[in-house]
Write a structure and sequence with these properties.
By secondary structure, this protein is α/β, with parallel strands linked by helices. It contains 11 helices and 8 strands. The protein has an 8-stranded parallel beta barrel, surrounded by 5 helices. Residues 18-205 form the NADP-dependent oxidoreductase domain. One of its GO terms (molecular function) is oxidoreductase activity. InterPro entries: AKR, NAD(P)_OxRdtase_dom_sf, NADP_OxRdtase_dom.
Length: 281
């Protein structure tokens, strides 16, 4: 399995919606200590090419080698693309050809010969198309071009189980927030089958959690921010959070989470409330 190098913090820097700021923010994140970067070959929401520019500058100016970093990107089907912008493949081509074209474009954008993790950005329109796409990712893995393969935005356990019959799903990246009940069924499937579960929208999508008195008590007693407490609880539950902060201060706070020791004494009730919300325990 492709382990995220030197990432005791178990946290990934997400690059969605950064637009022209992408290069500068990725450089800042890596120099702060992030070693795992998430992007997608989807001009609608990502500038994968500017992530690649950041990787070049980090190597040339700061000595960061490709193998020092863990890079994850995605194939975005036509349904997830903005057709007014350049699409990295011909949408009339067969699924396999679309993925190969998008994958090749990603390698070019990111100035690399391999990916640490490659995801389907979402299931395709039919189960058959999704399986065809999954088989293509499996072939890329067999060829040594990708270390891990997985899916994103997949909330149906049935789909995961079907894919696992062809090749084990190794990564799932989903919204993990109060609005979808903390994705309990998929998260449970991932825990049971040893699948890396990556979360996004956890903070921005959970305002009532961040203001919950139980969480605030845990954070205050632990001398950390509520956001840090959420990320720490997520990591302890087996979740790998994504953070897309544009603040260097928050980047530093996020990276310090792995060293954080949450206070336990006298907070059993509070932990019970928060744990019940996050993981149904």
């Amino acid at each position: 399995m492709s382990v995220i190098p030197n990432i005791a913090s178990r946290i990934i820097y997400g690059t969605a919606w950064k637009k022209e700021r992408t290069t500068a923010l990725v450089i800042s994140a890596v120099l702060k200590g992030f070693r795992a970067i998430d992007t997608a070959c989807q001009p609608k929401h990502y500038r994968e090419d500017l992530v690649g520019q950041a990787l070049v500058e980090l190597k040339e100016k700061h000595g960061l080698k490709r193998e020092d970093l863990w890079i994850q990107t995605k194939f975005s089907p036509v349904s997830g693309q903005d057709t007014t912008q350049p699409i990295p493949y011909n949408p009339s081509d067969p699924i396999r050809k679309q993925i190969i074209a998008s994958f090749t474009k990603s390698l070019t954008n990111l100035h690399t010969t391999y990916l640490d993790s490659y995801l389907l950005h979402s299931p395709l329109q039919t189960d058959q198309q999704t399986l065809e796409a999954w088989q293509t990712l499996s072939t890329l893995q067999d060829e040594g071009k990708v270390k891990l393969i997985g899916v994103s935005n997949t909330y149906d356990v049935r789909i995961l189980a079907t894919l696992c019959k062809v090749r084990k799903v190794q990564v799932v990246q989903n919204r993990w927030y109060e609005g979808n009940g903390w994705d309990k069924s998929v998260f449970g499937f991932c825990k049971e089958h040893g699948i890396m579960y990556q979360s996004f929208w956890t903070l921005s999508g959970s305002p009532s959690l961040l203001s919950n008195p139980a969480l605030l008590s845990i954070a205050a007693t632990s001398e950390c921010t509520p956001e840090q407490a959420v990320f720490k609880l997520a990591q302890e539950a087996g979740v790998t959070p994504l953070t897309g902060t544009t603040s260097e201060i928050h980047m530093g706070e996020d990276l310090r989470v792995h060293k954080l020791q949450l206070a336990k004494e006298g907070l059993g009730k509070e932990y019970g409330v928060v744990s019940s919300m996050l993981i149904g325990q």
